[in-house]
């Protein structure tokens, strides 16, 4: 049973403060976007890779993938949309007929492992929908507008969402069709609101999203530890 993965990389990445979107910045010599794609090419069950980028970066991205030998027939580059969920929707439209399982991965999570991808895939096959996540380790406070603590939240049931996230294609298409007007920050939120149970899969602490300059430094040191 083959799966497609939609790599979402159509954000502006402004929090990095760099001249180009963060997904194109180099991490240990290789662009973050390339590093976010490569682990999927190591998974035999991935039959299609769809990379979603800003409309004006399609050519640049196509060239970048070719330079890194990521230009097989199962690879395509499409334009994204305004919100992350619009970009996922653009990717969904490009999923090949006959592929029933769709994973979504952030183009800014370069340290994902093939093992985690496989765990997510297997859970989607078994349960219909799944998401990588890690338990919250810090104490969590809810604050109010006056910067006072309003509550301390019980963290024992809290998880930090990562990607891959995924589902059977029809569940995602249905959720996107019915809930297009809801603003969400990930696909799982749309699935939840559509009433689809989503299983949590233990993610990896190293599978961090690169958001600011400090994340790049951290990713570099994680990579140095992994290779030593
Ligand atoms: O902004 P944030 O870091 O949450 O974005 C997560 C991922 O979604 C990034 O890889 C980003 O490029 C992608 N994204 C997108 N289209 C948008 C906004 C974000 O593909 N309109």
Automatic annotation (TrEMBL):
List the residue(s) that the UniProt entry marks as the site Positions MEP for the nucleophilic attack: 155, 209
Q: In which pathway does it act?
A: Isoprenoid biosynthesis; isopentenyl diphosphate biosynthesis via DXP pathway; isopentenyl diphosphate from 1-deoxy-D-xylulose 5-phosphate: step 2/6; Isoprenoid biosynthesis; isopentenyl diphosphate biosynthesis via DXP pathway; isopentenyl diphosphate from 1-deoxy-D-xylulose 5-phosphate: step 4/6
What cofactor requirement does the entry state?
a divalent metal cation
Determine if Chaperone is one of this entry's keywords.
no
Task: Please give the biological process terms from Gene Ontology that the record holds.
Answer: isopentenyl diphosphate biosynthetic process, methylerythritol 4-phosphate pathway; terpenoid biosynthetic process
Q: Name one GO molecular function term.
A: 2-C-methyl-D-erythritol 2,4-cyclodiphosphate synthase activity
Q: What is its EC number?
A: 2.7.7.60, 4.6.1.12
Where is the site Transition state stabilizer? 15, 22
Concerning its family, UniProt says: In the N-terminal section; belongs to the IspD/TarI cytidylyltransferase family. IspD subfamily.
According to its UniProt entry, what is the function of this protein?
A: Bifunctional enzyme that catalyzes the formation of 4-diphosphocytidyl-2-C-methyl-D-erythritol from CTP and 2-C-methyl-D-erythritol 4-phosphate (MEP) (IspD), and catalyzes the conversion of 4-diphosphocytidyl-2-C-methyl-D-erythritol 2-phosphate (CDP-ME2P) to 2-C-methyl-D-erythritol 2,4-cyclodiphosphate (ME-CPP) with a corresponding release of cytidine 5-monophosphate (CMP) (IspF).
Protein name, UniProt field: Bifunctional enzyme IspD/IspF
Q: Which gene encodes it?
A: ispDF
State the covered range within the intact protein: 3 to 230 of 390
